[in-house]
Amino acid sequence: MSRETATDDATDPTSLALDAPAPQTPDDAEDGVWLGCIDCGETYSPFESVRYTCDCGGLLEVRYGEPSGFADFGPEGHSAATERGVWRYAAALPFDEGVSLPEGDTPLHRVPRLEDEVGVASLRIKHEGMNPTGSFKDRGMTVGVRAARELGVGRLACASTGNTSAALAAYGGRADMETLVLLPAGKVAAGKVAQAALHGARILEVDGNFDACLDIVQELAGRGEAYLLNSLNPFRLEGQKTIGFEILEAHLADYGTFPDRIVLPVGNAGNTAALYKAFRELVQADALEPEEVPALTGVQAADAAPMVEAIEDGADEIRRWEEVETIATAIRIGNPVNAPKALPGIRNTGGTAVAVADEEITAAQRDLAGEGVGVEPASAASVAGLRKLRDRGVVDDDERVVCLTTGHLLKDPDAAYEAGNDPEPVPNDADAVLEHLRE
Ligand SMILES: *Cc1c(COP(=O)(O)O)cnc(C)c1O
Ligand SMILES: [Zn+2]
């Protein structure tokens, strides 16, 4: 596997190159933490006022004077921490503790039959469906809702394909804050709406797709009517970095090496951006060599694939797709807001992006479930994508691969019912049941 790092701009502290130097701490930092623009390098105080993007329009990220406080994989180092889950990595986060349920510490499943069939040196499944509300969004919310408290905002809001709303409803409830969620009417899986409703959010159903919901929430946030907790919020991505830390630690413990590749579904590309940031900070802290960073490999559904298009075209920006469709509703997104952070992540780690058909997603969902790992359709896209890249010879047979499964099977009971075995009606009688089984 070969890779290129963007050495041409490595001396620029706003650069997203893997080998960029740690940025200088500006005067407006608070306890060594600030917000920095990935486009122009402008810096902002993190908690003085609410802000999601730079005045230049660029995306912001949380930056630290000490690059990754989490830099020690050994038994003497961070692994010895008593805290579990996301807050075990507090040294790499903007707070010491959060609004926690708690979250993180998810399993890295072995799937020997899939590993064998796909034909790689090893295949592990990082199952983020095992978080408190059943998706990785919880890792972002524990930090994001804590930031909301720090900022003293009154009302939380998000647009959502489902899981963000379930997570925000739960964490908003935990923090005793008013919570609004905007959902595309009729396009959200049943389990997710049920969660948002019961955890006490007000559910606003919009006659439009996810991207339209996000436009509205951004407008509300811009007018100061709500604190936005979509992945445009830089604090959320901080929590999601911990997926990367957990994968590296667990993989090192099991195999003595880091994975060669991490394959993940891509919607708004927040997770892709968060994993890349985790790795950049570890490289800055000399805890990881640039060559050791896993190749970030994004998977989208064929009819919702603007990131794949941008990677294939070598474009610096994505083209917004107005019409998107897939059974994987969690990644039914045509305008991935974190693309400017995620595209360099995929390119600078030697990764790639691939689109898969809905039937391939369903097949992968069934195969994962057959080995006991129950995931929702979007999650299975990771395995479907890996399979396709092996078939194309893009992924080698000697690679160690981790696939990220982002949400739990029960999130989308209708999809599970469709993909699974049909119930067989039988008479109320043991002999008749045996008779039926012999047929
Ligand atoms: C949110 C979500 C995604 C997409 O993640 P991004 O960070 O937006 O790319 C994928 N799968 C599931 C189940 C999700 O909930
Ligand atoms: Zn800027």
Automatic annotation (TrEMBL):
Cofactor names: pyridoxal 5'-phosphate
Tree of life domain: Archaea
Positions carrying N6-(pyridoxal phosphate)lysine: 137
InterPro entries registered for this protein in UniProt: Ser/Thr_Dehydratase (IPR050147), Ser/Thr_deHydtase_PyrdxlP-BS (IPR000634), Thr_synthase-like (IPR004450), TrpB-like_PALP (IPR001926), TrpB-like_PALP_sf (IPR036052)
Keywords of this entry: Amino-acid biosynthesis, Lyase, Pyridoxal phosphate, Threonine biosynthesis
Domain Tryptophan synthase beta chain-like PALP: 99-407
GO function terms (MF aspect): L-serine ammonia-lyase activity; pyridoxal phosphate binding; threonine deaminase activity; threonine synthase activity
EC number(s) from the headed UniProt entry: 4.2.3.1
SUPFAM superfamilies referenced in this protein's UniProt entry, alphabetically: Tryptophan synthase beta subunit-like PLP-dependent enzymes (SSF53686)
Record keyword RNA-binding present: no
Pathway: Amino-acid biosynthesis; L-threonine biosynthesis; L-threonine from L-aspartate: step 5/5
Family to which this protein belongs: Belongs to the threonine synthase family.
Identification of the protein by name: Threonine synthase
Species name: Halalkaliarchaeum desulfuricum
